[in-house]
Design goal:
By secondary structure, the chain is an alpha/beta fold. It folds into three domains: 3-163, NAD(P)-binding Rossmann-like Domain (Rossmann fold, 3-Layer(aba) Sandwich), CATH 3.40.50; 170-289, N-(1-d-carboxylethyl)-l-norvaline Dehydrogenase, domain 2; 298-422, Thrombin, subunit H (Beta Barrel), CATH 2.40.10. The protein has 16 helices and 15 strands. It has helices at residues 13-22, 38-43, 51-56, 68-76, 99-110, 124-130, 141-146, 148-154, 166-194, 199-208, 214-224, 234-250, 256-270, 282-289, 298-309, 400-422; strands at 3-7, 26-30, 46-47, 60-63, 90-93, 115-118, 121-122, 133-138, 155-162, 316-327, 330-343, 347-352, 361-365, 375-385, 388-395.
Length: 423
């Protein structure tokens, strides 16, 4: 049985190496963070101190790394593979890199009589764990045939695409579609959520209809259950789209959907979602529509409906900061009391004895127990009521997480008041 050197034990690499071990290959593993190798050592792998050491006794070396520079460093850097490679060995790079990088490695290794295949994968973490990855392979076809047993230990489909760089071209075109399809799913789910429909019910329609896609199957349930655990990260999706954009530029080919997708995943990265699964970019849409896309909490909906049907009025005491312009460049403010009596999708209703004006901005200060920051609102409606004033207020710039905390606080208070009314 062949000895395989495996470099890179991240989300994909670790389960791929585990499958090689379980299929009977002798495996030497290396990862920059050494602790990630411990599970594989327990399965029977040998741990190497460097890429060069992992390759020294290997017949085949597999790399599964994050980007072009990391791949090049693992090959040609200090203690890289090239320092211990010998004629007749084969290097298989399963990373997603530019076709130019793949061809550069092929040419360099060929001068040392070492074979090279660019063989990126599709299938994400579940397929890596199940050994059902799909490989798209560039390089010499006879090299692929000689190493087919290695591929079959990790995947269920191996497609030869052509000469060196062909696998990388195929992967970038493939991931262009992945990114676009994922965002199409997110937009559809956002639209029905904003319309007040249940996104989980809508997803069942998608999965049964013409809008279905592999992304809907893989990411739909993750989105509606708020599971952003990493299967394929936002930062890697963005990296692949940027590489695809470079290819499109080189071809002088318009790619409007690719450009739009790249921009949206850049927003996700800027929002701090780089290490989360790519489906976490739904949170950008949620910021725009001030709502979360999630399975409906039926018990909470029932409580709200009971409250509305029973016309149980909220009675949450607040302090309101009210600011008025005195003259250009200065204003005065004061703190008044008010009562929150209802919450709607876009605003709240307050009661106060203090007269205010339309379009005035106020700042709401909730009780300490609510653990809510001050919230700004604009008065859009005033209804006098026996010496009191009922104000309809639109909330301004409310982040989704604050909106959810507000809804939860009001839900708990309404349940308390409902129970009190029944006792």
């Amino acid at each position: 049985m062949k000895t395989v050197g495996f470099i890179g034990l991240g989300t994909m690499g670790k389960p791929m190496a585990a499958n090689l071990i379980q299929k009977g290959f002798r495996v030497n593993v290396y990862n920059r963070t050494a602790d990630k190798a411990q599970e594989l050592v327990a399965l029977g792998a040998a741990q190497a101190a460097s890429p060069a050491e992992a390759a020294k006794e290997a017949d085949v070396i597999v790399t599964m790394l994050s980007n072009d520079q990391v791949v090049l460093d693992s090959l040609f850097g200090e203690n890289g593979l090239a320092h211990s490679l010998r004629p007749g060995q084969t290097v298989i790079d399963c990373s997603t890199v530019s076709p130019a990088t793949s061809r550069k490695i092929y040419d360099e290794l060929a001068s040392h009589l070492v074979d090279f295949l660019d063989a990126p994968v599709t299938g994400s973490k579940p397929a890596a764990e199940n050994g059902t990855l799909v490989f798209m392979v560039g390089g010499q076809e006879e090299t692929l045939d000689a190493q087919r047993d290695v591929f079959e230990a990790m995947g269920s489909k191996i497609v030869y695409m052509g000469p060196s760089g062909s696998g990388s071209y195929a992967k970038l075109a493939h991931n262009t579609m992945v990114g676009i399809n994922a965002l199409g799913l997110m937009e559809g789910l956002s639209m029905v959520t904003k319309a007040g429909l249940d996104p989980e019910s809508f997803l069942s329609i998608v999965l049964a209809g013409g809008a279905n896609s592999r992304q809907a199957e893989l990411k739909g349930s993750k989105i509606v259950s708020r599971d952003f655990s990493n299967q394929f990260s936002t930062k890697l999706m963005l990296k692949d789209l940027q590489l695809a954009g470079d290819v499109a530029d080189g071809f002088q080919m318009p790619s409007p959907m690719l450009r739009t997708a790249t921009g949206l995943f850049q927003m996700g990265l800027a929002k701090g979602l780089g290490e989360d699964d790519l489906c976490s970019v739904i949170q950008c849409y949620e910021d725009w529509m001030h709502m979360q896309v999630r399975s409906r909490d039926k018990s909470a909906e029932a409580t709200t409906e009971r409250r509305r049907n029973a016309r149980i009025q909220l009675d949450i005491k607040l302090h309101l900061s009210v600011y008025q312009w005195e003259q250009e460049g200065s204003f005065s403010g004061q703190l008044i009391e008010g009562t929150l009596i209802d919450l709607s999708e876009s605003g709240i209703r307050l009661v106060s004895s203090f007269p205010l004006a339309r379009d005035m901005f106020i700042v709401l200060h909730f009780p300490k127990e609510a653990d809510l920051p001050p919230i700004t609102a604009r008065i859009i409606r005033i209804d006098p009521d026996n010496g009191l004033f009922r104000y309809g207020c639109m909330l301004s710039g409310l982040p989704p997480y604050v909106r959810l905390k507000l809804e939860e606080y009001i839900r708990v208070r309404s349940e308390e008041q409902e129970q009190a009314s029944q006792s």
